[in-house]
Protein backbone atom coordinates (compact mmCIF):
# COMPACT_ATOMS: atom_id res chain seq x y z
CA UNK A 1 0.00 0.00 0.00
CA UNK A 2 1.35 3.45 -0.91
CA UNK A 3 1.81 5.78 2.09
CA UNK A 4 -0.68 8.61 2.41
CA UNK A 5 0.71 11.93 1.16
CA UNK A 6 1.79 14.62 3.61
CA UNK A 7 -0.90 17.16 4.48
CA UNK A 8 0.67 20.34 3.15
CA UNK A 9 1.10 23.23 5.55
CA UNK A 10 0.59 21.06 8.63
CA UNK A 11 2.96 19.35 11.00
CA UNK A 12 0.68 16.67 12.48
CA UNK A 13 -0.73 14.28 9.91
CA UNK A 14 -3.82 13.13 11.81
CA UNK A 15 -5.80 13.66 14.99
CA UNK A 16 -4.50 11.39 17.69
CA UNK A 17 -7.07 10.23 20.28
CA UNK A 18 -7.66 12.53 23.24
CA UNK A 19 -6.57 10.65 26.36
CA UNK A 20 -9.46 12.15 28.35
CA UNK A 21 -12.16 10.81 26.01
CA UNK A 22 -13.72 7.37 26.21
CA UNK A 23 -14.62 7.34 22.50
CA UNK A 24 -12.46 8.12 19.49
CA UNK A 25 -13.11 9.10 15.87
CA UNK A 26 -11.53 7.27 12.98
CA UNK A 27 -11.44 8.03 9.25
CA UNK A 28 -12.07 4.60 7.75
CA UNK A 29 -10.67 3.65 4.37
CA UNK A 30 -14.14 2.93 2.98
CA UNK A 31 -15.27 6.44 3.94
CA UNK A 32 -12.15 7.96 2.37
CA UNK A 33 -12.78 5.97 -0.81
CA UNK A 34 -16.38 7.19 -0.88
CA UNK A 35 -15.19 10.81 -0.57
CA UNK A 36 -12.72 10.25 -3.38
CA UNK A 37 -15.40 8.93 -5.72
CA UNK A 38 -17.76 11.77 -4.82
CA UNK A 39 -15.05 14.42 -5.18
CA UNK A 40 -15.48 15.52 -1.55
CA UNK A 41 -12.88 16.33 1.07
CA UNK A 42 -13.23 14.09 4.14
CA UNK A 43 -12.12 16.91 6.46
CA UNK A 44 -11.47 20.62 6.17
CA UNK A 45 -7.90 21.81 6.46
CA UNK A 46 -9.05 25.37 7.15
CA UNK A 47 -8.07 27.02 10.43
CA UNK A 48 -10.92 27.89 12.80
CA UNK A 49 -10.73 30.65 15.41
CA UNK A 50 -12.85 29.89 18.47
CA UNK A 51 -13.44 32.48 21.19
CA UNK A 52 -13.03 31.40 24.81
CA UNK A 53 -13.58 33.37 28.00
CA UNK A 54 -11.13 32.48 30.77
CA UNK A 55 -11.32 34.28 34.11
CA UNK A 56 -7.55 34.75 34.41
CA UNK A 57 -4.67 35.17 31.97
CA UNK A 58 -1.44 34.97 34.03
CA UNK A 59 -0.33 31.50 35.08
CA UNK A 60 2.21 30.48 37.70
CA UNK A 61 4.62 27.94 36.24
CA UNK A 62 5.29 25.10 38.64
CA UNK A 63 8.02 23.38 36.62
CA UNK A 64 11.48 24.14 38.09
CA UNK A 65 13.45 23.82 34.85
CA UNK A 66 11.71 25.92 32.19
CA UNK A 67 13.29 29.25 33.11
CA UNK A 68 10.11 31.17 33.86
CA UNK A 69 7.86 31.66 36.88
CA UNK A 70 4.86 33.41 35.30
CA UNK A 71 3.49 33.11 31.79
CA UNK A 72 0.44 34.08 29.75
CA UNK A 73 -1.01 32.62 26.57
CA UNK A 74 -3.38 34.72 24.50
CA UNK A 75 -3.99 31.87 22.08
CA UNK A 76 -4.34 28.14 22.75
CA UNK A 77 -3.30 25.91 19.89
CA UNK A 78 -0.84 27.20 17.33
CA UNK A 79 -1.12 27.39 13.56
CA UNK A 80 2.66 27.29 13.14
CA UNK A 81 2.32 23.51 13.24
CA UNK A 82 5.76 22.65 14.66
CA UNK A 83 5.56 18.88 14.78
CA UNK A 84 7.67 18.52 17.94
CA UNK A 85 5.81 21.17 20.00
CA UNK A 86 5.45 20.25 23.69
CA UNK A 87 2.34 22.45 23.93
CA UNK A 88 0.28 20.07 21.80
CA UNK A 89 -0.68 17.99 24.84
CA UNK A 90 -2.34 21.01 26.47
CA UNK A 91 -4.97 21.08 23.72
CA UNK A 92 -6.44 17.89 25.13
CA UNK A 93 -7.51 19.79 28.25
CA UNK A 94 -9.72 21.94 26.03
CA UNK A 95 -11.39 18.87 24.52
CA UNK A 96 -9.41 18.70 21.29
CA UNK A 97 -6.72 16.51 19.77
CA UNK A 98 -3.02 17.25 20.14
CA UNK A 99 -2.70 16.49 16.42
CA UNK A 100 -4.36 18.47 13.64
CA UNK A 101 -6.82 20.10 16.04
CA UNK A 102 -3.90 21.85 17.73
CA UNK A 103 -3.04 23.54 14.43
CA UNK A 104 -6.54 24.05 13.01
CA UNK A 105 -8.65 24.98 16.04
CA UNK A 106 -7.16 28.06 17.65
CA UNK A 107 -8.75 29.30 20.86
CA UNK A 108 -8.73 33.08 21.14
CA UNK A 109 -8.86 34.94 24.47
CA UNK A 110 -10.21 38.30 23.35
CA UNK A 111 -10.42 39.63 26.91
CA UNK A 112 -6.71 39.01 27.52
CA UNK A 113 -5.70 42.72 27.61
CA UNK A 114 -8.33 43.57 30.23
CA UNK A 115 -7.54 40.46 32.27
CA UNK A 116 -3.86 41.41 32.21
CA UNK A 117 -4.59 44.97 33.33
CA UNK A 118 -6.73 43.70 36.18
CA UNK A 119 -3.89 41.42 37.25
CA UNK A 120 -1.19 44.10 37.14
CA UNK A 121 -3.35 46.48 39.20
CA UNK A 122 -3.64 44.07 42.13
CA UNK A 123 -2.23 45.62 45.30
CA UNK A 124 -0.72 42.27 46.26
CA UNK A 125 1.19 41.84 42.99
CA UNK A 126 4.89 42.65 43.02
CA UNK A 127 6.60 43.10 39.66
CA UNK A 128 8.14 39.95 38.23
CA UNK A 129 8.77 39.15 34.54
CA UNK A 130 5.78 37.60 32.76
CA UNK A 131 6.53 35.54 29.66
CA UNK A 132 4.21 35.83 26.68
CA UNK A 133 4.11 32.54 24.74
CA UNK A 134 5.07 30.23 27.54
CA UNK A 135 2.91 27.66 25.75
CA UNK A 136 1.92 28.87 22.27
CA UNK A 137 3.27 31.66 20.07
CA UNK A 138 1.69 35.06 20.71
CA UNK A 139 2.69 36.12 17.17
CA UNK A 140 1.17 33.17 15.33
CA UNK A 141 -1.02 34.02 12.28
CA UNK A 142 -4.11 34.69 14.44
CA UNK A 143 -2.37 37.80 15.79
CA UNK A 144 -2.63 39.51 12.40
CA UNK A 145 -6.40 39.51 12.79
CA UNK A 146 -6.94 39.94 16.53
CA UNK A 147 -3.92 42.09 17.54
CA UNK A 148 -4.25 40.97 21.16
CA UNK A 149 -0.50 40.70 21.68
CA UNK A 150 -0.07 44.35 20.71
CA UNK A 151 -2.84 45.37 23.08
CA UNK A 152 -1.21 43.42 25.92
CA UNK A 153 2.15 45.05 25.21
CA UNK A 154 0.41 48.41 25.55
CA UNK A 155 -0.79 47.30 28.99
CA UNK A 156 2.73 46.28 30.03
CA UNK A 157 4.02 49.66 28.87
CA UNK A 158 1.24 51.54 30.67
CA UNK A 159 2.09 49.82 33.95
CA UNK A 160 5.87 49.82 33.43
CA UNK A 161 5.96 46.08 33.93
CA UNK A 162 8.69 43.67 32.69
CA UNK A 163 7.71 41.23 29.95
CA UNK A 164 9.51 38.59 27.89
CA UNK A 165 8.38 37.23 24.53
CA UNK A 166 9.07 33.91 22.81
CA UNK A 167 8.30 33.77 19.08
CA UNK A 168 9.17 32.28 15.69
CA UNK A 169 7.36 34.95 13.73
CA UNK A 170 8.70 38.15 12.22
CA UNK A 171 5.29 39.73 12.89
CA UNK A 172 6.85 40.97 16.13
CA UNK A 173 8.46 43.78 14.11
CA UNK A 174 5.00 45.28 13.63
CA UNK A 175 5.16 46.27 17.30
CA UNK A 176 8.64 47.75 17.19
CA UNK A 177 7.37 51.08 18.49
CA UNK A 178 6.07 49.59 21.75
CA UNK A 179 9.10 47.31 22.13
CA UNK A 180 11.46 50.28 21.83
CA UNK A 181 9.50 52.17 24.48
CA UNK A 182 9.70 49.18 26.82
CA UNK A 183 13.41 48.75 26.12
CA UNK A 184 14.16 52.30 27.27
CA UNK A 185 13.35 51.20 30.82
CA UNK A 186 14.77 47.65 30.54
CA UNK A 187 11.27 46.14 30.56
CA UNK A 188 11.55 43.78 27.58
CA UNK A 189 13.49 40.72 26.44
CA UNK A 190 12.76 38.83 23.24
CA UNK A 191 13.50 35.16 22.62
CA UNK A 192 13.53 34.24 18.94
CA UNK A 193 13.40 30.52 18.18
CA UNK A 194 15.64 29.44 15.29
CA UNK A 195 16.14 25.71 14.91
CA UNK A 196 17.91 25.48 11.55
CA UNK A 197 19.68 27.45 8.83
CA UNK A 198 18.14 25.15 6.22
CA UNK A 199 14.92 26.42 4.72
CA UNK A 200 14.09 22.88 3.58
CA UNK A 201 14.31 21.64 7.18
CA UNK A 202 12.29 24.59 8.46
CA UNK A 203 9.56 24.01 5.90
CA UNK A 204 8.88 20.41 6.92
CA UNK A 205 9.58 20.81 10.65
CA UNK A 206 7.79 24.13 11.25
CA UNK A 207 5.48 24.53 8.24
CA UNK A 208 3.76 27.87 8.96
CA UNK A 209 6.53 29.77 10.70
CA UNK A 210 8.51 32.69 9.31
CA UNK A 211 11.37 31.75 6.99
CA UNK A 212 14.87 31.47 8.42
CA UNK A 213 15.88 34.59 6.51
CA UNK A 214 13.03 36.59 8.04
CA UNK A 215 13.82 35.33 11.53
CA UNK A 216 17.47 36.31 11.22
CA UNK A 217 16.40 39.73 9.95
CA UNK A 218 14.12 39.98 12.98
CA UNK A 219 17.04 39.30 15.34
CA UNK A 220 19.11 41.95 13.60
CA UNK A 221 16.36 44.58 13.54
CA UNK A 222 15.43 44.12 17.19
CA UNK A 223 19.08 44.24 18.24
CA UNK A 224 19.76 47.37 16.21
CA UNK A 225 16.94 49.12 18.07
CA UNK A 226 18.29 48.25 21.50
CA UNK A 227 15.92 45.38 22.23
CA UNK A 228 17.85 42.51 23.86
CA UNK A 229 17.49 39.22 22.00
CA UNK A 230 18.18 35.68 23.14
CA UNK A 231 17.99 32.98 20.46
CA UNK A 232 16.43 29.64 21.33
CA UNK A 233 18.08 26.71 19.54
CA UNK A 234 15.18 24.59 20.67
CA UNK A 235 14.71 21.83 20.28
CA UNK A 236 17.90 20.21 19.08
CA UNK A 237 16.88 16.99 17.31
CA UNK A 238 19.59 14.38 16.71
CA UNK A 239 20.37 13.85 13.00
CA UNK A 240 18.00 16.64 11.95
CA UNK A 241 19.56 19.86 13.26
CA UNK A 242 22.17 18.67 15.76
CA UNK A 243 24.94 19.22 13.21
CA UNK A 244 24.00 22.91 12.91
CA UNK A 245 24.73 24.03 16.48
CA UNK A 246 28.02 25.84 15.77
CA UNK A 247 26.97 27.54 12.50
CA UNK A 248 23.65 28.52 14.06
CA UNK A 249 25.36 30.06 17.07
CA UNK A 250 27.83 31.95 14.87
CA UNK A 251 25.10 33.29 12.62
CA UNK A 252 22.72 34.51 15.32
CA UNK A 253 25.57 36.11 17.24
CA UNK A 254 26.63 37.99 14.09
CA UNK A 255 23.03 39.18 13.74
CA UNK A 256 23.13 40.75 17.20
CA UNK A 257 21.82 38.12 19.63
CA UNK A 258 23.23 38.60 23.12
CA UNK A 259 22.79 35.00 24.24
CA UNK A 260 21.56 31.58 23.19
CA UNK A 261 19.80 28.69 24.90
CA UNK A 262 18.87 25.15 23.89
CA UNK A 263 16.86 22.07 24.77
CA UNK A 264 17.05 18.52 23.46
CA UNK A 265 13.80 17.30 21.94
CA UNK A 266 11.51 15.11 24.05
CA UNK A 267 8.26 13.66 22.76
CA UNK A 268 5.86 13.43 25.69
CA UNK A 269 2.29 12.17 25.63
CA UNK A 270 0.63 12.26 22.23
CA UNK A 271 3.62 13.99 20.63
CA UNK A 272 5.54 10.73 20.34
CA UNK A 273 2.90 9.26 18.02
CA UNK A 274 2.49 12.53 16.08
CA UNK A 275 6.23 12.96 15.52
CA UNK A 276 6.78 9.28 14.66
CA UNK A 277 4.09 9.31 11.95
CA UNK A 278 5.35 12.62 10.59
CA UNK A 279 9.00 11.63 10.28
CA UNK A 280 8.13 8.35 8.56
CA UNK A 281 6.42 10.44 5.87
CA UNK A 282 8.73 13.46 5.76
CA UNK A 283 12.12 11.75 6.26
CA UNK A 284 11.60 8.02 5.67
CA UNK A 285 15.30 7.38 4.98
CA UNK A 286 16.35 8.37 8.51
CA UNK A 287 13.15 8.01 10.53
CA UNK A 288 14.23 5.01 12.62
CA UNK A 289 17.69 6.46 13.19
CA UNK A 290 16.29 9.74 14.52
CA UNK A 291 13.72 8.04 16.77
CA UNK A 292 16.35 5.70 18.23
CA UNK A 293 18.74 8.60 18.86
CA UNK A 294 16.00 10.57 20.66
CA UNK A 295 15.37 7.50 22.80
CA UNK A 296 19.11 7.31 23.52
CA UNK A 297 18.90 10.81 24.99
CA UNK A 298 16.07 9.91 27.35
CA UNK A 299 16.84 6.58 28.93
CA UNK A 300 15.45 4.49 26.09
CA UNK A 301 12.14 6.34 25.74
CA UNK A 302 10.77 9.12 23.56
CA UNK A 303 9.02 10.39 26.68
CA UNK A 304 10.95 12.09 29.50
CA UNK A 305 9.35 13.93 32.42
CA UNK A 306 12.26 13.93 34.86
CA UNK A 307 13.04 17.38 36.20
CA UNK A 308 16.68 18.27 35.73
CA UNK A 309 17.17 15.71 32.95
CA UNK A 310 14.31 16.09 30.49
CA UNK A 311 15.55 19.35 28.92
CA UNK A 312 19.20 18.35 28.47
CA UNK A 313 18.93 14.58 28.14
CA UNK A 314 21.55 12.00 29.09
CA UNK A 315 23.82 9.50 27.37
CA UNK A 316 26.53 9.92 24.74
CA UNK A 317 24.46 11.74 22.12
CA UNK A 318 23.11 14.23 24.66
CA UNK A 319 26.63 14.78 26.01
CA UNK A 320 27.86 15.58 22.50
CA UNK A 321 25.02 18.05 21.90
CA UNK A 322 25.44 19.78 25.26
CA UNK A 323 29.19 19.89 24.75
CA UNK A 324 28.81 21.59 21.37
CA UNK A 325 26.44 24.16 22.86
CA UNK A 326 28.99 24.94 25.58
CA UNK A 327 31.72 25.44 22.96
CA UNK A 328 29.37 27.62 20.86
CA UNK A 329 28.63 29.91 23.80
CA UNK A 330 32.30 30.27 24.66
CA UNK A 331 33.29 30.94 21.06
CA UNK A 332 30.50 33.21 19.82
CA UNK A 333 28.97 34.84 22.91
CA UNK A 334 32.01 35.63 25.02
CA UNK A 335 31.61 39.08 26.56
CA UNK A 336 27.91 39.27 25.67
CA UNK A 337 25.23 39.39 28.33
CA UNK A 338 21.48 39.96 28.55
CA UNK A 339 20.62 43.00 30.71
CA UNK A 340 18.66 42.57 33.93
CA UNK A 341 14.97 43.45 34.04
CA UNK A 342 13.94 46.66 35.78
CA UNK A 343 11.50 45.70 38.55
CA UNK A 344 11.39 49.11 40.24
CA UNK A 345 8.96 51.10 38.08
CA UNK A 346 5.74 49.12 38.26
CA UNK A 347 4.61 49.83 41.82
CA UNK A 348 4.22 53.56 41.27
CA UNK A 349 1.86 53.05 38.30
CA UNK A 350 -0.84 51.49 40.50
CA UNK A 351 -1.50 54.83 42.22
CA UNK A 352 -0.20 57.10 39.45
CA UNK A 353 1.97 58.79 42.05
CA UNK A 354 5.22 59.31 40.20
CA UNK A 355 8.38 59.09 42.28
CA UNK A 356 11.73 60.68 41.67
CA UNK A 357 14.69 58.35 41.38
CA UNK A 358 18.09 59.69 42.20
From TrEMBL:
Tell me which UniProt keywords the record has, alphabetically: Iron, Iron-sulfur, Metal-binding
Outline the extent of the Radical SAM core domain. Answer: 64-301
InterPro entries, per this entry?
Elp3/MiaA/NifB-like_rSAM, MJ0683-like, rSAM, rSAM_sf
The residue range of the signal peptide is none
Q: Which SUPFAM superfamilies match?
A: Radical SAM enzymes
Q: Name one GO molecular function term.
A: metal ion binding
Q: Which SMART domains match?
A: Elp3
Keyword Nucleus attached: no
The highest taxon in the source lineage is Bacteria
Family matches, as Pfam families: Radical_SAM
Xref: NCBIfam families: rSAM_PA0069 (NF033668)
Q: Which named protein is this? A: Radical SAM protein
- What organism is the protein native to? Yeosuana aromativorans
Amino acid sequence: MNPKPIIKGRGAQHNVPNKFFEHTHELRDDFLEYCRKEGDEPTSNKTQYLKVFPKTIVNKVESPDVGMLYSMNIYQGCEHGCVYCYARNSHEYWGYSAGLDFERRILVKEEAPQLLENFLKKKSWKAYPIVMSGNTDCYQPAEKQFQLTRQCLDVFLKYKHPVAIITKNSLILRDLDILKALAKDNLIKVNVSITSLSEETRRVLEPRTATIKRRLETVRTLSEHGIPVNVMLAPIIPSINSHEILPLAKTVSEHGALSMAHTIVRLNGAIGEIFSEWIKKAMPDRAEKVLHQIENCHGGSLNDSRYGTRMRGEGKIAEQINGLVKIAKQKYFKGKEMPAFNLDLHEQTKTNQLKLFS
